[in-house]
Amino acid sequence: MPSRTEQLSVFPAFMRVQGRIAAVFGNGDEAFAKTRLLMNTQARIVAYADAPEPDYARFLADNDITTVRLAFAPEQVKGAVLVFAATGDPAADREIAAAARAEKIPANAVDQPDHCDFFTPALVNRAPVAVAIGTEGAGPVLAQVIRAQIDQMLAPSLGKLAALATSYRNAVEHVVPRGVARRLFWRRFFTGAVANAVGAGDLSQARLSADALLHSPEKVDGHVWLVGAGPGAEDLLTLRAQRVMMEADALVYDALVPQEIVDMGRRDAERFSVGKRKGCHSKSQEEINDLLVELGRAGKRVVRLKSGDPLVYGRAGEEMAALRNAGVSYEIVPGITSAFAAAADFQLPLTLRGVASSLIFTTGHDLTGDVLPDWASLAISGATIAVYMGRTVAASVAARLMEAGLPAETTVAVIENASRRERRLLHGTLKDLPDLEFRDELTGPVMVIIGEAVAGANFDHSEPLVRKVTVAQELARS
């Protein structure tokens, strides 16, 4: 769910106004602008203008708009579905809005947000397609800038394509099965030969292509995307990940994937939370494999959403093997792994010319045996080490690396919740690292980065790893 600061104070909606009265009060530019906006609709516009300025009067006459040349009276609002108070006189506009509200008619008082029941959007019109941009009255100029950008993105023929789709809706409902097959039909309709023909102005060819598409539906097979959700920030999700999430019939996601990212998937997609977080596994890996195979065999298009990158400590290998053995097609959508996000938050060079030319990813659990892993020798020669899930193994990582010969003063960077708003940054040296195990307030995923290159990080916004130790903590350590 969005936070309170991210919630709208208005509910965006499209109101039916065809053949119904929309009343505009005023004589000048403000009323002229509202009337022009209403001309995008099939509303019955009534202009209340006792002395319209010449340009506005000419516009009203040229477009055969009903004009009432009388001063305002409260009964004039009756029968309208929308009222625009646009006289240019704030007090008069408030009076008009109050009269409308007394009749339970929504009113808009120009440039007075506190007296508006609704706001008029900046509009991109490709009827029957419309894009309305609102700023809750805070920034009309910003809305116009956005409108101009969107206007350039949308083909002028989009409205004709949408109208053609409307004419095929009943046939599609009778011929093409619901679910994946129907979505696939419409995707091909809006992006293939039909759309190309409409864009070229050849509606006859567009209908021929639509008929061919309707009577030769594509066979629908299940498919699984193993998608990297990135380190947690929504805007670090890749464009490809966003696209496939909007195509998916089902989302299978881990506990470390923030709800804000899960919510970016298609609204009506099935959602399966499978846990996969230290201490709270809700499904075993075998159960997850079986679920992916089951959904794929059912013809579903599935997004398996994993924190970071699916190929880095994501157990993607086991899921790919299960899908291959079951004959279910799949593909990988890479994501930004946490080590890169942590380095970015610290402005930390993971490789540095003349200092560190190698980068090691590890969980640190292979340091607990009697024999040091091969990568430990690389660390001694200057490689940068990124330790995933590093809080609980911090002490053993520090001890074994120092035992192998890595200097105790080697710089260490620690980050909880890399890339997210609630991230926390700490810094220190290798000998300080065991203190991390006593940081019980660090409940999010923790990344530890160790190496000479880490000394080049920006520590302005981080806190020291070592803090004052209480007597109880000192006793617990001993």
TrEMBL record:
It comes from the Bacteria. The active site is at D254, K276. Residues 157-214 form the Sirohaem synthase dimerisation domain. Residues 224-433 form the Tetrapyrrole methylase domain. The gene is cobA. Signal peptide: none annotated. The keyword Methyltransferase applies. Pathway: Porphyrin-containing compound metabolism; siroheme biosynthesis; sirohydrochlorin from precorrin-2: step 1/1; Porphyrin-containing compound metabolism; siroheme biosynthesis; precorrin-2 from uroporphyrinogen III: step 1/1. This is Uroporphyrinogen-III C-methyltransferase. It catalyses: precorrin-2 + NAD(+) = sirohydrochlorin + NADH + 2 H(+). Keywords: Cobalamin biosynthesis, Lyase, Methyltransferase, Multifunctional enzyme, NAD, Oxidoreductase, Porphyrin biosynthesis, S-adenosyl-L-methionine, Transferase. One of its GO terms (molecular function) is NAD binding.
